[in-house]
Specification:
Number of strands: 13
CATH architecture: Clam
CATH superfamily: Lipoprotein localisation LolA/LolB/LppX
Oligomer: single chain
Helix content: under 10%
Number of helices: 3
Distance between the termini: 40 Å
Radius of gyration: 16 Å
Shape: globular
Strand order of the largest sheet: 6-5-4-3-2-1-13-12-9-8-7
CATH class: Mainly Beta
């Protein structure tokens, strides 16, 4: 079985920085569940590069407001881990059916994986937006889409922007932090506009 540390690291998105003007209000609104995007789901592939080696696999992520559900799988589709996050708690289930609970993501991932993952920011970052909880620095391409985003010590790079309904969303996201690089390739975006 592949190390869960590397697989969960695949949740992170990419960094690679350029200088730019500070920008904390990306695109239309800052609130998932209010405005153009009520929620989203994407499926894709990830590669996690660390000094100890490289792991590859699949990722499926569903986001609805403040609730997140993430599934990490092997390249052949066997589930490695599932993570469910709400404002009150985060719950992780591993392939061996062991379960872990915490009141925040940092506490859970630190205790189970040995380091804290910034999952609070990721629902914003994967859309090419900044987490409204803190300052961020963007660089943009000629079309106005983000090329990079630096926030809370993470640097993300974006590419392959494509139109999904009337939204422009990234097809590639790369995250760099210390000696770790995670490359995420989105195969499919699904945008939820149901306001229920």
């Amino acid at each position: 079985m592949m190390p869960i540390k590397a697989w969960t690291a695949g949740l992170l998105v990419s960094l690679c920085g350029c200088a730019s003007l500070p920008h904390t209000a990306p695109f239309e609104d800052q609130t998932l569940g209010q405005g153009a995007i009520q929620g989203f789901r994407f499926s894709g592939r990830l590669a996690v590069h660390q000094p100890s080696g490289t792991e590859t696999g699949k990722i499926d992520w569903a986001s609805r407001g403040a609730k997140q559900h993430v599934e990490l799988s092997t390249p052949l589709g066997s589930t490695v881990a599932q993570l469910d996050q709400t404002p009150q708690s985060v719950h992780m289930t591993l392939a061996d059916h062991s379960e872990y609970w915490a009141t925040d993501t940092a506490q859970l991932t630190q205790s189970v994986l040995g380091y804290a993952l910034p999952l609070e920011g990721l629902p914003w970052w994967v859309l090419g937006r900044a987490d409204p909880a803190g300052p961020a620095v963007f660089t943009r391409d000629l079309q106005g889409n983000p090329e990079s985003l630096a926030q809370t010590g993470w640097l993300l790079q974006y590419g392959d922007w494509r139109q999904v309904d009337d939204q422009w969303l990234p097809g590639t996201i790369v995250l760099h932090h210390d000696e770790m690089t995670i490359r995420l390739k989105v195969d499919q975006w699904i945008i939820d506009r149901d306001s229920k």
